[in-house]
Amino acid sequence: QKEVEQNSGPLSVPEGAIASLNCTYSDRGSQSFFWYRQYSGKSPELIMSIYSNGDKEDGRFTAQLNKASQYVSLLIRDSQPSDSATYLCAVKSGGSYIPTFGRGTSLIVHP
Amino acid sequence: EAGVTQFPSHSVIEKGQTVTLRCDPISGHDNLYWYRRVMGKEIKFLLHFVKESKQDESGMPNNRFLAERTGGTYSTLKVQPAELEDSGVYFCASSQEAGEWDTEAFFGQGTRLTVV
How many Å separate Cα B95 from the centre of its chain? Predict the structure, then answer.
């Protein structure tokens, strides 16, 4: 059974710090990796996708993928209180249309 | 352009009752997905429609759940009879092409179902 593991948190960081969110997955055939942000009561929103080993940067967000170790992480630089949300990791294998989600990590950025 | 919309936003029903959730996908999106998040757990896949056909229903928990998408537009998910463990948030997502989660798959806000 494909599994995606995340620490549920909450992860609490001060404003301006780097928030590091981690995710591990069990399926070695996974090829697509996604990070979603979900504010309370709102829909999950895609913020990053990554497919190759290494880093991918988009503004204050950096996704890091290590397929050999089967983990993917999301770094948020200069964290802001508006970044406070639940961050969901999702993983999809090449032969599937359906991503598998983790339970999400709650991030709290305090002023 | 309207996004994925779900109705109702909240529903509280008694155990044994029937509830029907509705999802209106983005116009033109052939692919529609239902997911469910039980409290404290991960978002779990329920099923995938391509137009009006069920492409994959491997995540449906049992035969108390019935999903339909007549005409290939909106979809309904009926739970009959509802049990306490059915409580959670039911999400719907849609995309034009299957599996295009990185470019065009969008989620609705979810329906929070509470069975008491």
Answer: 14
